[in-house]
Structure formats: C-alpha cells, structure tokens
Amino acid sequence: MLQNRFGKLAATALAGSMLMGAAACGGGEETSSAQPSGAGTSAPAASGAKVGLAYDIGGRGDQSFNDSAAAGLDKAKAELSLADTKELEAGSGETEAAKEERLRLLASGGYSPIIAVGFAYSGPVKKVAAEFPDVKFAIVDDAAATAPNITNLLFAEHEGSFLVGAAAALKSKKNHVGFVGGVQVPLINKFEAGFIAGAKAVKPDIKIDVKYLTQPPDFGGFNDPAKGKTAAEGMLDAGADVIYHAAGGSGGGVFEAAKAAKGLAIGVDSDQAKTAAPDLQGVIMTSMVKKVDIAVYDFLKGVAGNTVKSGPAVYNLKAGGVDYSTTGGQVDDIKTKLEEYKQQIISGKITVPEKTS
C-alpha cells in the first residue's frame, strides 16, 4: 500500500518512449499460505531471463513499498543468472493507457518475467498479459488480474496491522492512537481494520482517530509528506500519542509530526527505523513489515526453476509474509505479549477482520 514513498516522481512519458512507472498499492483476498495456485504459465523458463519491473509511485528510493520490491530484485540479481533487468517508474495521476504502454514496452523488448508493483496496474496487466501470452507477469497487491500467465503476489496486511495496533495500545500513555491512510481504497482499509482490532484487543475503550489523505482516483496521498504531517499534527494536537501510517511516502510527514510532538510513530511495509531519514528513525517504535522483497524473489526464483504458477501466492503471518519490527528496542518490553497475539492469529484463535465495516 504499503514504506515512506519518498523518492523521485517521474513525469509520465508518451507512448513508445521510455516510460517510467508504477501505481499505488493493491489488494485481494487471502488464502492460507504463500504458495501460488493454478495452472503453470506458458512462457519459457528463465535461466538468463530479462526481468522487467514497473514500480509504484515513488519508485526505487521511496524507503518503503517500492524499495522492498527493489530489494527482492537485487537479491535475484545476486543469486540468479539474470541476463538483464529494466526498472521503470510512474508519475502521479497518470492514465491506465500509460501503464499499459509501460508494460507493453517491456514485453515487446523481450522482458519476461515482468513484475508490476501495485494494484493500480490491475487492468493494464490483464490487458497486456493477453497480448503477450508467452510472457510471465506478476502483480503485487492485486487478485483481480487473472490469466494463465499472471501470478498474484498478495499479503495479509490486516494480520500484521493487528500486531502493531496491539503495540500502539500497549505503548499509549493517553489511551488515544491514530491511523493515517494514504488513499481510501479497500487495500488500505485492511491496514486500518487490523490496526483497530489489535488496539481494541488490548484496550477495548481506546480512542482511535482515522484520517485518509486522498480519495481515488487521486492517489497522491501515497506521496505527499505535507499532507501526512498535517493529518498527524491534528491527531497529536487532539491527544493521540502513537500514530500508525499506511501512506507510503506521506509517512515521512507523519514521522516529522510525531517527533515534534514527542509522540511515537509506526512505520509500514519496510522496517522504517532502518530506512527513514536518520533524524526520524528514533521516533519509529515499530513497523508493520510487509515482505514484498521475499515475494518478488520467490517469484523470480520460481521462474528460474520453471516452477512458478499462475494465480494467488499469499504471504500471511503464518507464512512469514507480514510481521512487526523490533529495531531500536522500543517494543522489547511488550514483545512477549505481541508474540502471544501472533501465535493466536497463526493458530486461528484470533481471526483478524479485513474490513472496518
């Protein structure tokens, strides 16, 4: 969805030019494991593959969602015999036609597999995959784009968010926490639902403020630190002392506000106590880690071994696809309790809601 989507925003290029791109995070229904299901794809397998990766808004360097995907690609470069890689970025507010052309450019250039980072690629991936049936595609955070040559890399964001919600409630001294979502879409609602459930599991009467920065089709909420800061300042001024963001690059503004108010923040997607700006890392007590890097690497390894399959590959808490981070030691005193909640989710004793209503 979802960490700081800092970094550069590339301008949308015209069809046929070297488009740079990606959209915003996406989502879908979960199953119980991280194993792809469905029929195998038809493209030739992969030793020496040319890999294309189309980023979400912000691209490599966002310190979050995109950087996690980039880390998976980097690991594949180091460990698999990839012939070539091409990474393209997106600009804010671009059309589906631009996304299609970006994917088409990669496919026509001989890149296979191609990985699209984010649910906004759903329609474009489905369309271009039909045009290039011998090219393998993967899409992160979307279950809607289906075809014999598409693998859907999905995550149980609500389960990881439950754990950081519990952490927020355990750490809050004011019984008041907040959630900042980048864009009000079903995927980000999963983060909110899990966070609320986790906080209320600890303190049923806790006050929880919720603010979304933009509404679709405006996905700028994933890369607007100023809006993130303003939203967090409002919550902190109203009495919240811990704020969780699922807002990509906008999260940097949340961290700035928390630091200024001497509050605490919770990162998302990556371990942001490692990736955020150095002067802000200390305010991040934990992050909901979403292991896009593992999903990307697993997919590329499957292509290399000719074992990749189409359909959903779901990375949930049991599969290690989501978790909470412990960098900085700020949750060491509550880790035993968080681990208890984790095991209850894995065992099925706790079922975490995926929607707030």
TrEMBL record:
Q: Which residues form the signal peptide?
A: 1-24
**Bias kind Low complexity: ranges:** 30-44
Give the span(s) annotated as Disordered: 25-44
Q: How does this chain sit within the bilayer?
A: Lipid-anchor
| Swiss-Prot/TrEMBL keywords | Cell membrane, Lipoprotein, Membrane, Signal
GO CC annotation terms, alphabetical:
plasma membrane
Q: Which InterPro entries does the record associate with it?
A: BMP_lipoprotein (IPR050957), Peripla_BP_I (IPR028082), PnrA-like (IPR003760)
Instruction: One Pfam family, please name it.
Output: Bmp
Gene3D superfamilies, A to Z: 3.40.50.2300
Please list every transmembrane segment annotated in the UniProt record, as residue ranges.
Answer: none
Q: What is its main location?
A: membrane
The UniProt similarity line reads: Belongs to the BMP lipoprotein family.
> What is this protein's name?
Basic membrane protein A
Organism, scientific name:
Streptosporangium becharense
